[in-house]
Design goal:
heterodimer, A: mainly alpha, two-stranded antiparallel sheet, 26 helices, 2 strands, B: mainly alpha, two-stranded antiparallel ribbon
C-alpha cells in the first residue's frame, strides 16, 4: 500500500512542474507579443509546441506490455484517471461549439449541459464499479462473459454485436474530432485544411500508437490542464470586466436581469423592427418565387443571363462582371433544386425576422402546445445524452484503469468534478458574451466596427462565420443585422473581450487539446475492439501477447487513416452525426450493460434481441423523421426531433431484453455465479 | 490484485458455516447497494427531469439572482449529480468495510 501515495506524489510533482512551465511559456509569449512578434508566429508556436509536447509524452510512455497497453497497468490513481477521463470526454464540440450554441439557443441549449453531466450518475451507479470488479479489458469482454452463448459458450455473437456498436458509435465521433483538428489548425496557422488534419493525425498517432492506454492517459492529463486554462482565462476576464467578480460561475447571475432588460428593450426598438420587416419582405419574395414555379425559374435564368450580357456590353468593372458570372453559375440547375433553395432561403430569412428570444426563459412559445413540444424535446435530448454517456465505450473503458473498485467510484466523482470546472463555465461564457455584444456592439456605429468582425468574416468566404450588413441603411448596428455562427464564439472570445493575441492562441491550443484527447481515446476504443475482441477472442484465440499488441497498433494506424480520409471529405452536418452516435450508443449498449448486472434472468437470446431491437428502432426513427436522410418532419412521433431517437430506442432495447429473456430458457449457473461475483465487494 | 476469473467463487471449498456466512454477507451487501442506488437514482430523476418538466412554473422563483429553472439547468442539476456520485462512493466504502467485518472469523 505504501507504494501508492509515493506514486501519486511523484505524479502530482510532475504535473505541477508541467503547469508551471506552461505558465512561463505563456508569459514569455506575451512578452514577445509586446516586443512585436507577428501573430502568425504565435499561432505556429502554440500549435507546434503543444503537439511536440504530446508526442514527447507519448514517446516516454511507449509500451508493448498487454496490461499497460490496454488498461495502463491498472494503477492510475483516481484523481488522475478522473482528469484523463474528463479530457477524453470534453470533445471539440463541447469546447468550441457548446457556448456558441447556448448563445444562440438560450435555455434550450442547456439540455446539452444537463445531459452531458447527468449521464455520469448512471455511469457511477450502474456500470463503472461492476466493470472494474470484472477486471478485463473492453466492454464487449464483459457482455460476452456475462451472456455467453455461441460456440463453446464463449459469447462470440454478443461480442460481435457489441463490437459493431462500439465501432459505429466511436467512428462517427472520431471523424467529428479530426474534422475539428483540421479546422483549428488551418485557421490559426494558415495551412491547408487537409494538411491540418494530417498534422493532428500525426500527433494522435505518436501518442496512442506507441503507448496505448498508458500514453493516452498521461497525455490526456496534460491536455486537460491546457484546455482548462484556455477556457477559464478569457471567461474570467469577461466576468471581471462586466460583473466585477472574476469567478464567472458565481458572477453571471447578477448579469441575467440586466441582459433580460436589454433584450426586452431590443425587442421593441423601432429600428430593429425596420430590419426585421426587411427580412420578412425578403422571405415573402422567396415564397412568391417558389409558388410561381416553374415559370419563375425560367424567368430568373433569363434575367441572370441578361444581366451578365449587359455587364459585358457596357464594359462594366471586373467585379461587376464576376458578380454576374457567379450569379449565373450558382443559379439552380432545375426546378426542383430551385424550389429547395428558395424555400430554404425563405426559412432562413423568416428566422432572422423573429425578435430575439429571452435568454433565461424556459420554452417560450406562441401557444401552450408549442411550448410543451419544446419542453418535451428538451427532455428527450437530455434523456438521449444521459443514456448515451453511460454507454460510450471509450468512457467505460476507463473504468478498468484504476487500482481498485473503490478508486473507480472515486474516479467517476473526479471525472465529473473536472468536467464541471469547464461545463459550469460554458453557460456563464454564453451570457457574458451576449451581454458584451448587446451592450457594446449593438447600437454602435458601422464606421467603428471592432477588428475581430472583419477577421472572422473573411475566414470562410462561402459561409461567413460572422456577417454584419447595414440592412436598413441607418449606419447603426442593429441586433437583427448581426449573424454569428456557433463555432466562432469561443475562438473569438479573447478578441471580443479585448485580450492580447496570445490568449487567442491559447484558446486555439485548448480547442486542439480537447479534440486530440477525445480522438485518442476513441481510436484506442476502436482498435482495441478490433484487435482484442475480434482478432484475439474470436479469430485467433492462441495468438501470442506480442502479436496481439502489434496487431492492435497496425489496426490503430489503419482506422486513423480511414477516419482522417472521411473527415477530409468534409461530411455535411457533423453535429447531428455526433448526436446520432449518442442515441445509437444508448439504445444498443445501455440496456444489456445494466440488465446484465441488475437482472440475473437476462440471458443470451435476450441480449442479442435487445441490442438489435434498440439499434433498429433508433435507426428507423432517425431515417423516418429527418429530412436530410430521406424522411419527413411530418412523420415524427409526439413531435420528437430525430436527433433524440434514443428516447424510443432505449426503452425498446430494455423491453426486448426482458420479454425475450422471459420467453427463453434461464441463463446457465455460471452466469449466476459471475453476477454474484461482480456484485460482491473485493 | 483480485483473481480475475469471474466464474470462481472464492468460497469454493470452505466448510458450510463459512459459506453460509459469505452468502449472508453478500446478500446483505447487495440489498444495501440496491437501496442506495435506487435512492440516488430517484434524486437524479427529480433534479434532472423534474425541474425541467416544471421549468415554466419554477421560473417565478429566484436563486442567487438566477431564475430557479435556469439555475437548475445550468448548474444545480450538475452539482446534485456530483454530490450524488460523492455520496455513493463514500457510502459504498462504508458498506464494503461492514462486509469485510462480517466475513472476519468470529464476527
Amino acid at each position: 500500500m505504501s507504494a501508492r501515495p509515493h506514486y501519486f506524489n511523484k505524479l502530482a510533482r510532475y504535473y505541477l512542474w508541467y503547469t508551471g512551465c506552461f505558465a512561463l511559456f505563456l508569459v514569455a509569449l506575451a512578452v514577445l507579443e509586446q516586443e512585436g512578434m507577428p501573430r502568425l508566429w504565435i499561432g505556429y508556436l502554440f500549435m507546434f509546441a503543444t503537439i511536440a509536447l504530446y508526442a514527447t509524452i507519448g514517446v516516454i510512455c511507449r509500451t508493448s506490455n498487454v496490461t499497460e497497453y490496454y488498461v495502463a497497468g491498472r494503477r492510475v490513481p483516481a484523481l488522475f484517471n478522473g482528469m484523463a477521463t474528463a479530457a477524453d470526454w470534453i470533445s471539440a464540440a463541447s469546447f468550441i461549439s457548446l457556448a456558441g450554441g447556448l448563445y444562440l439557443q438560450g435555455f434550450d441549449g442547456l439540455a446539452f449541459i444537463m445531459g452531458w453531466t447527468g449521464g455520469f450518475v448512471l455511469v457511477a451507479l450502474l456500470i463503472a464499479p461492476y466493470l472494474r470488479k470484472f477486471a478485463q479489458y473492453t466492454v464487449p469482454d464483459f457482455l460476452a462473459a456475462r451472456y455467453g452463448g455461441g460456440a463453446g459458450g464463449r459469447g462470440a455473437p454478443v461480442r460481435i454485436l457489441a463490437v459493431g456498436a462500439t465501432i459505429i458509435v466511436s467512428f462517427t465521433y472520431v471523424v467529428a474530432q479530426i474534422y475539428a483538428v483540421g479546422l483549428i489548425a488551418s485557421r490559426f496557422t494558415g495551412v491547408d485544411f487537409s494538411v491540418g488534419i494530417f498534422l493532428g493525425l500525426a500527433s494522435i498517432l505518436v501518442c496512442s500508437f506507441l503507448g496505448g492506454m498508458r500514453a493516452i492517459t498521461w497525455t490526456q492529463v496534460a491536455q486537460y490542464i491546457i484546455l482548462l486554462v484556455a477556457f477559464l482565462i478569457p471567461t474570467m476576464w469577461l466576468s471581471a470586466k462586466h460583473a466585477d467578480n472574476p469567478i464567472p460561475q458565481v458572477a453571471y447571475g447578477s448579469l441575467l436581469p440586466k441582459l433580460s432588460a436589454r433584450e426586452a428593450q431590443l425587442a421593441k426598438d423601432p429600428r430593429e423592427e425596420q430590419v426585421r420587416a426587411e427580412f420578412r419582405r425578403r422571405a415573402a419574395e422567396y415564397a412568391a418565387r417558389a409558388d410561381a414555379l416553374p415559370e419563375s425559374w425560367e424567368a430568373g435564368k433569363v434575367e441572370a443571363q441578361r444581366k451578365l450580357a449587359a455587364a459585358r456590353a457596357r464594359n462594366g468593372s471586373l467585379t461587376e462582371v464576376r458578380q454576374a458570372e457567379r450569379a449565373l453559375a450558382t443559379y439552380p440547375n432545375s426546378v426542383d433544386e430551385a424550389r429547395a433553395l428558395w424555400l430554404e432561403r425563405r426559412d432562413a430569412n423568416l428566422a432572422r425576422a423573429r425578435p430575439p428570444e429571452p435568454h433565461a426563459t424556459p420554452f417560450p412559445g406562441a401557444t401552450k402546445e408549442a411550448s410543451d413540444e419544446r419542453r418535451n424535446n428538451f427532455l428527450a435530448v437530455v434523456f438521449c445524452l444521459m443514456f448515451g454517456t453511460a454507454a460510450l465505450p471509450h468512457i467505460l473503458m476507463r473504468a478498468y484503469t484504476t487500482p481498485s473498485v473503490h478508486e473507480t467510484r472515486v474516479s467517476v466523482f473526479w471525472t465529473l468534478f473536472f468536467i464541471l470546472l469547464v461545463y459550469l463555465t460554458i453557460p456563464a461564457l454564453a451570457v457574458l458574451v451576449k451581454y458584451d455584444l448587446y451592450t457594446s456592439l449593438i447600437g454602435s456605429d458601422f464606421t467603428s466596427l471592432p477588428t475581430w468582425i472583419s477577421y472572422w468574416a473573411n475566414v470562410d468566404k462561402a459561409n461567413p462565420l460572422v456577417s454584419i450588413v447595414d440592412i436598413n441603411g441607418d449606419g447603426i448596428v442593429q441586433l437583427a443585422e448581426l449573424a454569428i455562427d456557433a463555432d466562432v464564439l469561443v475562438l473569438a472570445t479573447p478578441e471580443i473581450g479585448g485580450l492580447p493575441y496570445v490568449i487567442s492562441g491559447l484558446v486555439a491550443a485548448g480547442g486542439l487539446a480537447a479534440a486530440l484527447s477525445t480522438a485518442d481515446g476513441l481510436l484506442l476504443a476502436i482498435s482495441n475492439a478490433l484487435s482484442h475482441d475480434v482478432y484475439y477472442k474470436v479469430v485467433q484465440p492462441n495468438a501470442s501477447i506480442q502479436k496481439r499488441v502489434t496487431i492492435s497498433k497496425l489496426l490503430l494506424l489503419a482506422v486513423a487513416f480511414i477516419a482522417a480520409y472521411a473527415a477530409s471529405q468534409k461530411p455535411a452536418d457533423i453535429l447531428s452525426l455526433v448526436a446520432a452516435a449518442f442515441s445509437l450508443a444508448g439504445s444498443t449498449l445501455f440496456p444489456v450493460l445494466v440488465l446484465g448486472v441488475f437482472w440475473k434472468r437476462a440471458n443470451h437470446q435476450g441480449a442479442l434481441a435487445g441490442m438489435v431491437a434498440g439499434f433498429a428502432v433508433c435507426l428507423f426513427y432517425m431515417l423516418r423523421a429527418s429530412p436530410g436522410l430521406g424522411g419527413s418532419t411530418l412523420d415524427t412521433w409526439f413531435g420528437i426531433l430525430p436527433m433524440a431517437a434514443g428516447v424510443f430506442g432505449v426503452p425498446a432495447g430494455m423491453l426486448t431484453v426482458i420479454v425475450v429473456s422471459l420467453l427463453t430458457a434461464p441463463p446457465p449457473r455460471a452466469s449466476d455465479a459471475m453476477v454474484d461475483y461482480i456484485r460482491a465487494p473485493e | 490484485m483480485t483473481p480475475t476469473d469471474p466464474s470462481a467463487t472464492p468460497a469454493h471449498d470452505q466448510d458450510g458455516a463459512a459459506r453460509r456466512r459469505l452468502l449472508a454477507a453478500r446478500g446483505a451487501h447487495w440489498r444495501a447497494t440496491r437501496r442506495i442506488t435506487l435512492a440516488l437514482l430517484g434524486l437524479w430523476l427529480a433534479t434532472g427531469f423534474g425541474t425541467v418538466f416544471f421549468a415554466r412554473e419554477l421560473a417565478r422563483f429566484e436563486l442567487f439572482g438566477w431564475p430557479l429553472s435556469f439555475y437548475m439547468a445550468a448548474q444545480g442539476a450538475a452539482l446534485v449529480s456530483l454530490a450524488s456520485i460523492g455520496v455513493y462512493a463514500w457510502r459504498m466504502r462504508c458498506l464494503e468495510r461492514r462486509y469485510a467485518q462480517a466475513l472476519e472469523p468470529g464476527a
